[in-house]
């Protein structure tokens, strides 16, 4: 095994993953994610973005290859240790909002904090702060089924940010939002992660979303294709990049 570079929070080498029905999803993907950066994983539908995030976060175990988190091998961990890693150090935003229907909004947002051992009062205070930032503070006592889809997604984003994870995996996080809402939610998300030093791996096929990232890795048919960086655009919050297949 080759040790990963010191400044990479996440480092993957030669990842191969095949779905149980035999569909190939990753065919030798290697990448590094530096501390505090927002890395966009782009590519057309079916290119392997979600599968890559699932492998990097320990949700799926690759058939071959290595994944290291802060110089600790994830690919050799058993399911219980990977589960603990995901709960304590990672957060995840899905393209569709999934909340616990029995809990109200602030309880949903506070849940990961309480699972990490925070007291109910402290977790509630932090959750309410994040709900306010995401403009759903006034929904705190309602139940998810009474919210609009876009509001539920904002709650999911607050829930992911509240525990200040080391790495946030965001799979098309603004997919259920109207175009007008997307810019605001993405700016809130990027401002929050930058101010808290949270590393983000963001799957998207939207060029405007990818432009908020520091760096872009493009996938095609489960393989990385080369990435060309553009010079920084002053008015953009991140640095744009475009990708060329070679
Ligand atoms: N549960 C599954 N079972 C079988 N094949 C799957 C499954 N999930 C994804 N695949 C296949 O694996 C490949 C990669 O899919 P993946 O969802 O990772 O791509 P993606 O780039 O995230 O696509 P999208 O943007 O549509 O989410 C595709 O060929 C897809 O059809």
From TrEMBL:
InterPro entries per record: AAA+_ATPase, ABC_transporter-like_ATP-bd, ABC_transpr_LolD-like, P-loop_NTPase
Domain ABC transporter: from-to ranges: 10-246
MF terms (GO), sorted A to Z: ATP binding
Domain of life: Bacteria
Keywords, in A-Z order: ATP-binding, Nucleotide-binding
UniProt xrefs under Pfam families: ABC_tran
PANTHER family (UniProt xref): IMPORT ATP-BINDING PROTEIN, LIPOPROTEIN-RELEASING SYSTEM ATP-BINDING PROTEIN LOLD
Similarity comment: family membership: Belongs to the ABC transporter superfamily.
Listed name of the protein: ABC transporter ATP-binding protein
Organism: Streptomyces cinereospinus
């Amino acid at each position: 095994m080759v040790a990963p570079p010191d400044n990479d929070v996440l480092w993957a080498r030669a990842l191969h993953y095949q779905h149980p029905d035999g569909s190939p999803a990753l065919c030798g993907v290697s990448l590094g994610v530096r501390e505090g950066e927002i890395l966009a994983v782009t590519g057309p539908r079916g290119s392997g973005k979600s599968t890559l995030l699932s492998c990097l976060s320990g949700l799926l175990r690759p058939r071959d290859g290595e994944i290291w988190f802060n110089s600790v091998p994830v690919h050799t961990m058993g399911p219980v240790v990977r589960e603990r890693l995901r709960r304590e150090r990672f957060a995840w935003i899905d393209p569709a909002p999934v909340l616990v229907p029995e809990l109200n909004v602030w309880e949903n947002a506070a849940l990961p904090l309480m699972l990490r051992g925070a007291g109910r009062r402290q977790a509630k205070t932090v959750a309410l702060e994040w709900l306010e930032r995401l403009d759903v503070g006034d929904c705190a006592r309602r139940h998810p089924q009474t919210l609009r889809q876009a509001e539920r997604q904002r709650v999911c984003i607050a829930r992911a940010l509240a525990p200040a994870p080391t790495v946030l995996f965001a799979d098309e996080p603004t997919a259920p939002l109207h175009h007008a809402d997307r810019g605001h939610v993405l700016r809130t998300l990027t401002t929050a992660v930058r101010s808290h030093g949270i590393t983000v791996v963001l799957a998207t096929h939207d060029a405007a979303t990818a432009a908020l990232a520091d760096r872009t890795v493009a996938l095609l048919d489960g393989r990385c294709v080369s990435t060309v960086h553009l010079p920084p655009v002053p008015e953009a919050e991140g640095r744009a990049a475009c990708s060329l297949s070679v």
